[in-house]
Design brief:
globular, disordered N terminus, 549 residues, five-stranded parallel β-sheet, alpha+beta, 13 helices, three-stranded antiparallel β-sheet
């Protein structure tokens, strides 16, 4: 009898039918594609609601831009940041309460300045400014706490890796040959690769103002809202004033178009660099392979015009570090060099990323070393260097570029500036935004008077925080019934400029996961989720869905 039981036991271990078997490691209720901050909040929410979840991440490092250098958070009005998003910033606060967290600087020496808010809010017990490795560790702690299953460096087979039938995704396959099966899928990538591979409609570039009845969309020739434009007359030609000598690098010879017209240009990307001025943690700026000082001739002319704002976006992080963003007419944004990125192959994207890295490393090396840089600027710049204890497996360089915008879904409804500016109401809010309608430059061109100018930089303040519709994170039902898209959500270019902030992505990731679980429980399409039930759960989980009366 004992022998028979052993044989049966062995049979059950290796058989696929007739006995209980080990769960398929590539199958879960919810499959999340991407490794951004929204991936983590979505996965945690699915787990908290009692369903199984797998994160399929093309990235090795989790957290996207939140762990990739953007530590000076674009908070907007932080009172509308709730749920797991706020929980993340609470965990940042708790980390920095430990004296051991202040290795390179005393806490009392930190200026406590955030973006429109104190960096550390003791009343709310939140902190909005942090080092990259701290953010990554918090995301990894979420993974460990909830025992989340994560497959890293798994790239979606964008050609034929989405198995779809009767309007539903059955599985997705990666280039390594793995196939992941689920009931609902969530695309949390900055590029919207799963969304596109699932044949969901989307848009790349700027819509004309006429498409959605907007004012601030499309080409913005002559609109100079921020300080990221040329304020003096500077020649774009190799020999100043001589068109026959050719244009300097980075200047387009194309007609910029007319204000309000649509185009396929994409606002500029950059890496958010983490520098330090602590000599014991500082790495000198490396000279990149292929360095060409001629790439930065325009900056020399900007300096010669009297411009001295090099350090205006050296936003301070704890431990004597910075989150460095683009600032000024010629800076870290590699304008015009990313137009094909959203739909490019993986190989082409790597080329674009490498070119951006070379441009920014070269710019840093140029400022630190070229004799034409003003001596006072160069002296101050050389007090800084790459932070030795950040991005240690990537030469101290961020592992995530700031993909400010790529594809944007054309979903069940499209968020536009009319909703963001409070001109049209939302009745099914799944989160709130509050940041400026913000776009970086999309092109550098020659004006009719023969001088250079940038175009695309916009900054328009919403009158108050606004609601984001559930219908903006789901496709049209006829296109796909079990996909949610909380990052490349359905939005016009200019509305996306406000919603494309990391706190909002974490909020929408959690909302998408909540809807996914409820769709599974009711065996229905994500478009048919009952909003009152969805709202009740989001409120229970401390999400902020409307302005307080």
């Amino acid at each position: 009898m004992k022998k028979i039981l052993v044989i049966i036991s062995l049979f059950c271990t290796f058989s696929f039918t007739g006995c209980a078997k080990e769960k398929d490691p590539f199958t879960a209720d919810v499959i999340i594609y991407g490794g951004t901050s929204a991936a983590i909040t979505a996965a945690v929410q699915v787990s908290r609601m009692g369903k199984t979840v797998i994160i399929v991440s093309p990235d090795k490092h989790l957290g996207g831009l939140s762990s990739g250098g953007l530590g000076f958070t674009d908070t907007g009005n932080k009172s509308v940041i709730g749920g797991l998003s706020r929980e993340f910033y609470h965990k940042v606060f708790m980390h920095y309460q430990n004296p051991a967290s202040w290795q390179w600087q005393k806490q009392a020496e930190f200026g406590n300045r955030g973006q429109g808010t104190p960096a550390m809010d003791h009343g709310e017990r939140t902190m909005w400014v942090f080092e990259p490795h701290v953010a990554e560790q918090i995301f990894e702690d979420f993974v460990k706490t909830y025992n989340l299953k994560v497959y890293r460096e798994e790239w979606l087979n964008r050609k034929d890796g989405v198995d779809k039938k009767d309007g539903k995704i059955l599985s997705i396959s990666t280039l390594s040959g793995k196939t992941f099966k689920g009931k609902v899928f969530i695309d949390v990538t900055y590029e919207g690769d799963l969304m596109a591979a699932a044949k969901v409609k989307y848009h790349v570039g700027r819509e004309a103002n006429s498409v959605y009845g907007e004012e601030w969309n499309g080409i913005q020739v002559g609109i100079l809202h921020h300080g990221h434009n040329f304020k003096t007359n500077i020649s774009p030609y190799v020999v100043p004033g001589n068109p026959s000598s050719g244009l300097l690098p980075g200047v387009s010879d194309k007609d910029p178009g007319k204000r309000g017209e649509g185009d396929k240009r994409v606002q500029a990307y950059c890496y958010r660099m983490c520098y330090t001025n602590n000599p014991d943690n500082r790495v000198p700026f490396p000279k990149p392979d292929g360095y060409d000082a001629k790439q930065y001739e325009l900056l020399v002319r900007v300096f010669n015009s009297g411009w001295r704002e090099t350090f205006h976006k050296f936003d301070l992080l704890p431990n004597s570090k910075t989150d460095i963003n683009n600032h000024g007419p010629f800076s870290y944004d590699n304008i015009g060099m990313n137009y094909d990125y959203p739909e490019a192959s993986y190989e082409r994207r790597k080329e674009i990323l490498k070119e951006h890295e070379k441009y920014q490393k070269g710019l840093a090396y140029f400022i630190a070393n070229d004799s034409r840089v003003p001596a006072d600027v160069q002296k101050q710049y050389n007090q800084w260097g790459l932070a030795k204890d950040e991005f240690k497996d990537n030469g101290n360089w961020p592992h995530q570029i700031y993909v400010r915008e790529a594809r944007r879904m054309i979903g069940k409804m499209v968020m536009t500036e009319n909703e963001v500016m409070g001109k049209r109401k939302i009745t099914n809010s799944v989160g709130m935004g509050s940041y400026t309608l913000d776009s970086h430059n999309a092109q550098r061109y020659v004006k009719p008077d023969g001088f250079v100018q940038n175009e695309g930089d916009i900054g328009v303040e919403p009158p108050y925080p606004y609601q984001i519709s559930y219908d903006a994170i789901v496709p049209k039902k006829a296109e796909c019934q079990n996909l949610l898209v909380p990052v490349c959500l359905s939005s016009s270019h200019i509305a996306y400029g406000s919603m494309r902030m990391e706190p909002v992505f974490m909020i929408l990731g959690q909302s998408a996961a909540t809807a996914a679980v409820q769709a599974i429980e009711k065996d229905q399409a994500v478009q048919d989720v009952d909003y009152s039930t969805l709202k009740a759960r989001l409120v229970l989980d401390k999400m902020v869905l409307e302005n307080k009366k």
